[in-house]
Amino acid sequence: MIGYLTPNYPLVAAFRSLPATRRRPADRVSQKIFKMAPKLTDYFNDDEIVASKGDLDRPISGLAMDSRRVMHGNLFFALPGRRADGNLFIDEAIARGAVAIVAEKIPAVTSARVTYIQVTDARRALGRVSQRFFKFPDKSLELIGVTGTNGKTTVTNLAKHLLATSQQRVGLIGTVNYDLGARIVPSYRTTPESLELFGMLAQMRDAGCRQAVMEVSSHGIDQYRVLGMQFAVAVFTNLTRDHLDYHGTMEAYFEVKSRLFNGGVGTAPRAAAINVDDAYGRRLVAEAPQGLKIVTFGEAPDALVRAENVKLNFKSTSLTLVWPEGRLDIESPLIGRYNLSNLLAAFAACYALGRLPDVIAPRLKSFGGVPGRMERIEEGQPYNVLVDYAHTDDALRNALAMLRAITPGRLFVVFGCGGNRDRTKRPLMTAAVQEFADFAWATADNPRSEQLVQIFGDMKTGVKDEAKIAFVDDRRRALSLALDAAREGDCVLVAGKGHETYQEFADTIVPFDDRQVVRELIGIKSLKS
Question: Are residues 18 and 80 in the same domain?
C-alpha cells in the first residue's frame, strides 16, 4: 500500500534501466545496485516450491500482492481471493515490471522473461517470504498480539500507553491507526496482509521501537497474515457472536482464535494473558499447551490479575487492582464493566511481558481512552452524547447495560447494521437495543452493496415494542432526531461506527464522521434555541 511500505527506489530504478535484451545497466552505480539485489533463492526453501519455470537465481527489487502496486523488478504473489483471483492479474503485473510470479498454478502461457514459482498455498508463501525479506522484524520486537471479539482496540492502545516512555516509542497496528515509530498513518484494516505487516514491523524496528502491540483479527489468523510471527505475549479478551458469516459456527470461530495460543500460526507465544471471566477464556486456559506461561485476568477470585472493590461511575471507574505481588487503588477515566476488563487485559499483558507492576499500574489512571470507543462529545449541551464502535448484539448489550445503570434520565440510541455482513445478528442487535433503550433510531451504518430495505427487514424481526423504535434511512437525520429528543440528564449513544470517518454505499465511499456530525448538529440547534 502506498504510504505504508517504502520501496527501495534506487533498486527499482536499476531494474527499470534493464533493456529487453537483459544486458546489465550501462552506468556503474546502477550496475552495482543491481548486483546487490536480493535473489529469489534467498527467500524460498526447496521443499516450499512445487514446480518452477525460469531462473530461480533471479534478482528482485521487492514484493507485491496487488498488480496495481507492482514496480520494476518485483516478485508478484497471485493470491486467491473471495472477490477476485490474483491469477487474473498476472499479465498486468508483468506489464508493470514484475520479473517473477508466485502462484498456486503456473499459467498455461508464460513469458520467457519471467520466472514462475508454483506453491501449495500462495498466502502461506507470502507470509514466509515477507518475514524473510524484511529480516524477521518480529524477532527484534517484544510483540503483544491481542485477539477477541471486543476490546482489541482499547487493550492495544492501553498497553502501548503503559509501555511507552518519553525516550521509547512503542509501535501499534490496529483499527484506528498504525504507529510505525517515526510516523503515524491511518489504518485501513485491523490486521493487514502479511507483506504489509512485516513491512510495518520492520519500520518500527528501524525507527528504534523495542516493543509493538497489534490487534489480531480472526480473519488475520485464518488467512495466514500472522503466519510464523513471534509473539512475546498473546492476549485473549472474549468471544461473542460475530463474524459468523465468515466462520459459520462459534466452535469454528473459537478454533481460529485458539491458533494464536497453541502454535497454530506456526509458532507459539512465549506467554499469554487470558480473560477467565469469559467461558471461552476458561476453555482456552484448559486447552493451552504445556509450558505456556499464562497470566489470567478478570473479576473472578481465582484470576491472577483481578479487580476488587469495583465502583462503576458515570465519568470514571474505581477499583483495587490486585496481582500476585501487590495491590493498588486506581481511579480510571474509562467507564463501564467491559472497560474494566480492558484495563485488566492491558495490565496483565505487560505483567506477562515482565514489566514491573509498581511502575505500570499507576499509568492506568492517566489513560483517557481511544477515539470512537465510548468517546464523550462535549459541546455545552445539558445531556450526554457518547460515540462508540459497538456493532454486535453483545457489545451493544454491554454498553447499554452500563449506561442504563448510570444515566439519571432517558437512554436514547442511534444504531444500524452493516451491509454484506452476518444477517443473523441484525435482529439480535435490535433486541439488545430495545431491552435497554427508552427509544432508538435505526438507520444506515455502512450499507455497502446491500439494499437498506433488506437490512431494515432483518432488523425489524427483532423488534418487541414498535412504539420504542423508528427506522430512518438517512443517518444524519436520525442523529438530529435523537438530539432533538434529548433533555437534561438524558444520554444519547451513537453506536456502530465509532472512529470511522466514512460511509460505504455499494462502490462509493462518502465522508461521514458521527462525532463531527453530532458536534455540527449541536451547534446548529444551539443557535436556534
Answer: yes
Q: Which residues of 19-47 are buried (b: 16+ CB within 10 A; e: fewer)?
A: eeeeeebeeeebeebbeebbebeebbeee
* Helices 475-485 & 514-528 angle (0-180, nearest 10): 50
Q: What is the CATH number of the domain that holds 328?
A: 3.40.1190.10
Handedness of CA 461, 463, 464, 467 (dihedral sign): negative
- Model pTM? 0.84
Mean pLDDT by 10 residues, the chain (529 residues): 75 77 63 86 95 95 95 95 86 96 95 96 96 96 96 95 93 95 90 95 97 95 94 96 71 94 93 97 96 97 97 88 96 88 98 95 91 91 93 90 91 96 94 98 96 97 97 98 96 95 92 97 88
Distance CA 356, CA 344 (A): 15
In terms of Cβ atoms closer than 10 Å to its own Cβ (0-12, 13-18, 19+), residue 358 is exposed
**Contact (CB, 8 A) for 469 and 440:** yes
- Integer angstrom CA distances of residue 383 from 88, 397, 408, 411, 431: 55, 21, 10, 10, 25
Sheet of 74-77, strand order: 51-53, 115-118, 100-103, 74-77, 62-64
**H or E segment and range at residue 283:** helix 279-287
CATH of the domain at 457: 3.90.190.20
SS3 295: strand
For residue 268, the enclosing domain spans: 134-366
End-to-end, the C-alpha distance of the chain in Å comes to: 48
